């Protein structure tokens, strides 16, 4: 064979040789078998190219935070958009993500909105999963709820109450502990609420849960075009919610006025309730239908103190165990109780404010100048006079048996003498007796190094602008009640406000009547009205509601 030619010195043993001559070819045959690609949730939605989306208007931004709420992982830009290939008139909501964790935020929101299909949840249309520009696209261009209550840039409390109810009655909001409008949107065509992507705003408005159920069957939502018509909103809300729930809602949007003063200065405000902020005349006080409201020291979650006990007579007992028990500054909060529960002061006042102002002859333009006491804080400031004794005392008495007692606040029905006595006397004392029957002497207190305090009273009042009063007036009219009477307050079981009138001023009128003409008297009345000092029986339901309280000018007016 030719390949052995020229070869030498080799041998072949027990081998099988195959000889192939000519060109060699390798043929590869590929057979395609049809197979099904595994479907994922992503395939249920349109994958939209970046160039197919046309953004027309930015409506807001959103922030995505980490677990600490201090580190922002990503942000979102929310815009109105049109999509190529869809109806030219159709508008979509486009949410674009940016930041170091943009893609993770995008996937998280995709999982959230693709996992549920419900008419009250913003419905997903498609997505763009490009790493540089991830985005979600939702059907329809809805309106963020948090922007709606601001009519012409001003908050509309009654519209807010309406939205609170809609959130409470709408899935998936009704099972949440509290509502934050950043995730709530309104369909401009139907007025229905939907849950959607979060949007950030400087006017973001938290809406707390309404605990009161509707009084009627569900009604179709208000159209968004009627939101600016306060009368229409009041009429709608009055048909679906009880009056006390509406009052509770609108009363939450009052302003706060605060003033700290001594008890001698504060007692007229505590005994009364309503005053003009710049004049400080006390002109009304609470009285009950069955009993008079009283002040009670209350616990708040931020004031919880296991050592504190409220006694039957209204005094407060605090058990002393260590000199560090008391901070340099601390306070107790007192509110009015009516019966066995806290008085809804704001709602109670608004329910009868029109009646009170009418009886006092106060013009509407001045109503927002009047403040009603909401609660007061009894403040304690630790003195330094016994610092040396605290460091050096070698007392043998057991300090754990010491109690600090804060004397009870007088009742609203108590006379001026009792209030003045309370205001001028010591507000607290120490005792070894848990019932507080025996007061500890001052020398014993000092020898034990027990702290002493100076005290102050922080009055916290509320006042409302005319829009709130007008809203309540419309509510009363919608229920066929006369705003100039106390019908609404009576129907809700609220305590009533008694007008405090100054006998000295009444005597001036009587003396004037005997020596002047009718024209002079009318002129004098007008002058009194201008100073907000004249009271009137006009609009009063009965003489029983107006009680005359003799008082000195010094007791009623704080200089």
TrEMBL record:
This protein's name: Protein kinase domain-containing protein
Species assigned in the record: Moniliophthora roreri (strain MCA 2997) (Cocoa frosty pod rot fungus)
């Amino acid at each position: 064979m030719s390949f052995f030619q020229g070869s030498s010195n080799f041998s072949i043993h027990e081998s099988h040789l195959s000889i192939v001559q000519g060109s060699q070819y390798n043929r590869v045959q590929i057979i395609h078998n049809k197979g099904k690609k595994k479907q994922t949730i992503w395939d249920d939605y349109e994958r939209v190219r970046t160039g197919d989306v046309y953004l027309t208007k930015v409506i807001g931004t959103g922030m995505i935070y980490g677990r600490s709420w201090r580190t922002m992982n990503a942000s979102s830009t929310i815009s109105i958009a049109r999509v190529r290939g869809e109806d030219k008139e159709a508008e979509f909501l486009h949410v674009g993500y940016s930041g170091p964790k943009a893609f993770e935020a995008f996937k998280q929101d995709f999982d959230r909105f693709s996992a549920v299909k419900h008419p009250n949840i913003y419905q997903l249309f498609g997505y763009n999963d490009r790493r540089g520009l991830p985005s979600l696209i939702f059907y329809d261009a809805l309106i963020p709820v948090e922007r709606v209550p601001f009519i012409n840039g001003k908050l509309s409390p009654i519209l807010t109450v309406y939205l609170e109810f809609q959130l409470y009655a709408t899935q998936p909001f009704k099972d949440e502990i509290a509502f934050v409008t950043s995730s709530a949107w309104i369909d401009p065509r139907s007025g229905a609420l939907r849950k959607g992507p979060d949007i950030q705003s400087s006017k973001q408005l938290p809406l707390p849960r309404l605990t009161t159920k509707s009084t009627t069957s569900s009604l179709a939502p208000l159209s968004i075009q009627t939101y600016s018509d306060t009368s229409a909103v009041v009429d709608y809300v009055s048909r679906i919610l009880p009056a006390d729930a509406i009052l509770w809602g609108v009363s939450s949007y009052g302003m706060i006025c605060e003033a700290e003063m001594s008890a001698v200065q504060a007692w007229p405000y505590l005994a009364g309730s309503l005053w003009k902020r710049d004049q400080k005349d006390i002109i009304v006080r609470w009285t009950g239908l069955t009993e008079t409201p009283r002040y009670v020291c209350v616990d708040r979650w931020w004031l919880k103190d296991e050592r504190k006990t409220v006694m039957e007579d209204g005094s407060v007992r605090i058990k002393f165990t260590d000199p560090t028990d008391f901070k340099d500054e601390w306070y107790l909060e007192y509110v009015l109780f009516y019966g066995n529960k806290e008085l809804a002061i704001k709602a109670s006042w608004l329910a009868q404010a029109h009646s009170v102002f009418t009886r006092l002859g106060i013009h509407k333009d001045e109503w927002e100048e009047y403040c009603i006491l909401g609660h007061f804080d009894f403040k304690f400031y630790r003195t330094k006079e016994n610092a040396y004794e605290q460091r050096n005392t070698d007392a043998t008495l057991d300090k754990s048996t010491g109690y600090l007692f804060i004397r009870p606040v007088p009742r609203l029905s108590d006379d001026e003498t009792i209030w003045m006595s309370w205001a001028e006397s010591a507000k607290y004392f120490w005792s070894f007796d848990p019932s507080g029957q025996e007061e500890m002497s001052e020398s014993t207190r000092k020898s034990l190094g027990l702290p002493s305090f100076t005290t102050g009273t922080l009055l916290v009042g509320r006042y409302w602008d005319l829009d709130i009063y007008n809203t309540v007036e419309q509510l009363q009219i919608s229920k066929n009640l006369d705003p100039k009477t106390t019908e609404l307050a009576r129907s809700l079981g609220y305590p009533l406000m008694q007008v405090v009138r100054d006998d000295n001023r009444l005597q001036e009128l009587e003396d004037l009547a005997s020596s002047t003409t009718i024209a002079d008297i009318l002129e004098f009345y007008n002058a009194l009205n201008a100073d907000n000092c004249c009271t009137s029986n006009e609009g009063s339901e009965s003489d029983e509601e107006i009680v005359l309280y003799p008082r000195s000018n010094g007791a009623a007016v704080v200089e």
